[in-house]
Amino acid sequence: MNARRRDVPSSPADVEAAAAAAGDLTALAAACTTCRACPRLVAWREASAADPPARYRGQTYWARPVPGFGDPHARVVIVGLAPAAHGANRTGRMFTGDRSGDFLFAALHRVGMASQATSTAADDGLTLHDVRVTAPVRCAPPANAPTPAERRTCGPWLAREVELVAPRVAVVLGGFGWQALLTTLAEQGWAVPRPRPAFAHGAEVTLRHTARPDALTLLGCYHVSQQNTFTGRLTPAMLDAVLRRAREVLLGAEGCPPPGGLAP
């Protein structure tokens, strides 16, 4: 590895300062992808790249934090959990290169939010329409389980991304993303009820900002992990229904057209 530069975020305070200083999504991605603030995650993402499964041997892994991906002016954000060790940690793009991504991008294509049904590499030509994909944790964690401290350290990247995108709808994949996003929104001045709304597939909560007339609707969806999709806990029809509901919410917000300009 190259010698660590002084501007590389290497502590929670560094992450907070770097995220706050990012004036746009390009700057945010540039800062995020250099982050080394969580030693366990840095070690794991690099070890995964150094010893990949046989099917990926010879490929050059991204092996860095993964920034959000999609339309910079998206009115819909999809919030997952973290990159997969041999998915986004390999390709450098959220949900790209693994079975979870296959399931998600096929659904986005079916409802008119993606230009194609597959996402295999960062340069495969995929574009997203009025939607952005992101996660509360930007490095692949061992056993897909970041620690509470790692979640807190990584939080400012998601917070700043939400500020810059200013979505109207958030489709949240799983309970971890749901709680992480509610924490971020409460810190940003959104009126999050107490007790917090519970995560459930199909859950819908509309929040209002305490200082602005903004509204943000959260839609809960089971995570697109193989554990859910292979067992039938989450089916294509169930995911499609949540994404179509996101479009309906947009249509109801001041007559906004749905993503991609498609009819509902």
From TrEMBL:
Pfam families: UDG (PF03167)
All residue ranges annotated as the Uracil-DNA glycosylase-like domain in the record: 67-243
Entry keywords, A to Z: 4Fe-4S, DNA damage, DNA repair, Hydrolase, Iron, Iron-sulfur, Metal-binding
Family: Belongs to the uracil-DNA glycosylase (UDG) superfamily. Type 5 (UDGb) family.
Name of the protein this chain belongs to: Type-5 uracil-DNA glycosylase
Organism: Cellulomonas phragmiteti
